[in-house]
Design brief:
The chain is an alpha/beta fold. The protein is built from 11 helices and 15 strands. The protein is about 35% helix and about 25% strand.
Length: about 350
């Protein structure tokens, strides 16, 4: 990418996630939207009209466009692997919606291809760009909570039954891929709870080494879980839990913001969100005023960072590796819930 040019993007997938990607790309100073694509012509045409760019109904046709330097994938989860490989083979840089792939084991093929081609690869982990994240990391780094001993992640909320046919923002076209393990990879834990698990790892620097989980489907007519609870142990010895459901009416409508998650230590604890709340022996309770934010604001920062990585010629797949670690945790939770046994994960360990 030339220094005086914006990174030129194509967006594959024009559902709710694709529209959010396109919005961030259009609003980001370092990027430009060139084309959108979706096999559903109505979805593609709607996005084309909204963003004033041409559309195609064939992903391969978008990938063949020589003006496009980078691609954002917002396709159903089971297509991420196929089109991730096709994007790399077409010589385009890639940022893909989470999960990276439905099965973490298949993602190495994409990472290896992009490394061989010298292409930049990333994943939309926009919540890492929320303004409270660095402040929370600093608070822990300075030792205000002492040794971390417990983490509580709250992903309880409600999705209407129509979500499984039309998505959270009720696209005008039916799409039921979210219902099935083979096409989605999982229910609300993979679709939503992955953000909290990833941020916990990002903020604490700790890794999950063991999990025990139970799950069920109480309300929705789907294959995947609508409710799961998991206990876990971190590599410093701390314990934690994640409560995740999209069937708990009255607990808040998805997407659930990060505002109820807590990290406890021997000298205090913090509540993630804006404002960030901290409690410790010296300052007692404090509210840290961090800038207000929206998901779109965070996505703009994420895609801008990605564009700068391309400009620098950064070929590392840092966030791709990070999302795989979080997905490996989720995979272990699903395995534990199916078998009724604890699952141990590999870890280098921490003192």
């Amino acid at each position: 990418m030339r220094h005086n040019k914006k990174l030129r993007f194509g967006v594959l997938g024009c559902g709710a996630a694709g529209v959010l990607h396109a919005t961030a790309i259009v609003r980001c100073a370092e990027t430009e939207l060139v084309m959108v694509a979706d096999h559903n012509e109505k979805a593609a045409r709607n996005a084309s009209e909204a963003f004033d760019v041409p559309y195609v109904c064939c992903g391969e046709e978008l990938l063949a466009n020589r003006e496009i330097e980078a691609v954002s994938i917002a396709l159903p989860h089971h297509l991420h692997h196929e089109y991730g490989l096709k994007t790399g083979q077409a010589g385009k840089h890639l940022i893909v919606e989470k999960p990276f792939t439905t099965h973490p084991d298949t993602a190495a093929e994409i990472i290896d291809l992009f490394a061989q081609r010298g292409l930049t690869l990333s994943v939309w982990l926009e919540r890492r760009y929320y303004p409270f994240v660095e402040e929370a990391r600093r608070f822990l780094r300075e030792g205000h909570v002492g040794r971390i001993i417990y983490v509580a992640l709250d992903v309880m909320g409600y999705k209407p039954r129509a979500y499984w046919e039309y998505g959270m923002r009720f696209e005008s076209f039916a799409s039921d891929w979210r219902k099935r393990w083979e096409t989605s990879g999982g229910g609300p834990l993979l679709m939503n709870g992955i953000h909290q698990i990833d941020l916990m790892r990002c903020i604490t620097g700790l890794e999950v080494v063991e999990v025990m989980a139970q799950m069920d489907t109480f309300y929705h007519d789907i294959e995947v879980e609508d409710t799961i609870v998991a206990l876990f142990r971190l590599d410093n010895g701390a314990l934690g839990r994640v409560d995740c459901s999209c069937a708990s009416y009255g607990a808040g409508r998805f997407p659930i913001d990060i505002k109820r998650d807590r990290i406890y230590g021997t000298n205090g604890y913090l509540v993630l969100g804006a404002p960030l709340e901290t409690y410790d022996r010296i300052w007692h309770r404090r509210q840290h005023d961090v800038p207000k934010y929206t998901v779109t604001d965070a996505k703009i920062l994420a895609v801008g960072d990605f564009a700068q990585s391309v400009l620098r010629g950064d070929e590392t797949a840092h966030l791709a590796h990070e999302i795989l670690k979080s997905q490996t945790v989720i995979k272990a939770m699903y395995e534990s819930a199916r078998t009724g046994k604890a699952v141990t994960l590999e870890s280098k360990g921490k003192a």
